[in-house]
Amino acid sequence: MLEIKDIHTYYGTSHILFGISLNVEKGEAVCLLGRNGAGKTTTFRSIIGLTPPKTGSIKFQGQEIAGKPPYRIAQLGIGFVPDDRRIFPDLTVRQNILVARRGKEGSAWNLDSIYALFPKLKQLEAHMGNQLSGGEQQMLTVARTLMTNPQLILLDEPGEGLAPLVVKAMGEQLGEIKKTGITMLICEHNVGLSMALSDRCYVMDKGTIRFQGTIEDLRKNEEIRKKYLMV
Ligand SMILES: Nc1ncnc2c1ncn2[C@@H]1O[C@H](COP(=O)(O)OP(=O)(O)OP(=O)(O)O)[C@@H](O)[C@H]1O
Ligand SMILES: [Mg+2]
Q: For the segment 76-115, what is each residue's pLDDT rounded down to a tens digit?
């Protein structure tokens, strides 16, 4: 579904990604792990066109997307959940969800299926965005992205700043979303909620991929975990 080959990405003259290659098959959940500053968010920004790579290739469903504008990449079916939870503070929860709606009538994700997945959002539907807790905001951010009916969803640190119980609940909800057949790429600086969810993982450091394998491979590889992660 997604095939990244040897991308080099810069912010101005700062060279950040040094030949990242990774792939995600349809229906898979893959996590991208690495310490702060490893280049995870930059990899996501490269995929969604916010910081396009200078060289290399990014194919989505066989089509080259590197260099296409962000709105085109989104229209092709890539949804992005940013780490800074961009919800509208002055709209209600229900309005926040509805303004994100894209896709045809009868699409898999609509207000009903979102509320079935996140009953809490239904309870809070008349509340304003700025009245939500961090965990509720994160649910709303995921809900908004789902409303665009993406085929691939990129989640940037979905558990960041949330209490352990809230992280656990978010992990379970992402598991439910995965069951619908959506493909996922999740990044985290530590092995957190993505561990139970992911089929495979990549470990990044200083803009390069240092390890790839199954979660089980990573569990067994203490050297990689010690060197590039904090577990
Ligand atoms: N807008 C920017 N301009 C210049 N350099 C940037 C910019 N954003 C990030 N960087 C640099 O790029 C490198 C990779 O950052 P990136 O945000 O991709 O890391 P990350 O793996 O997502 O880290 P974190 O876990 O902290 O979110 C870092 O050295 C960072 O300082
Ligand atoms: Mg980041």
A: 999 999 988 889 999 999 999 999 887 666 678 999 999 9
Q: What is the pTM of this model?
A: 0.94
Mutational pocket test of ligand 1: of 8, 10, 15, 16, the residue with most ligand atoms within 8 Å of the beta carbon:
16
CA dist 144 and 138 (Å) reads 10
CB 178 within 8 A of CB 124: no
Pocket of ligand 1, beta carbon within 6 A:
11, 14, 16, 34, 36-42, 189
DSSP codes joined into one string, 130-187: GGS-HHHHHHHHHHHHHTT--SEEEEE-TTTT--HHHHHHHHHHHHHHHHTT-EEEEE
User: Considering the domain boundaries, does residue 169 fall inside one?
Assistant: no
Q: At a CB cut-off of 8 Å and minimum separation 6, what does 21 contact?
A: 4, 5, 6, 7, 209
Q: 159 and 220 share a domain? A: yes
Bridge-partner residues for 20, per DSSP? 7
Segment among 38-42, 169-173, 183-187 with least mean pLDDT: 169-173
CATH number at residue 32: 3.40.50.300
Q: Are residues 145 and 198 in the same domain?
A: no
137: its two tokens: 């905001």
* CA-closest residue to ligand 1 atom 25: 36
Distance 119 CA to ligand 1 centre (A): 35
pLDDT in tens, 126-162: 999 999 999 999 999 999 999 999 999 999 999 988 8
Pocket probe mutation, ligand 1, options 7, 9, 40, 44, max atoms within 8 Å of Cβ: 40
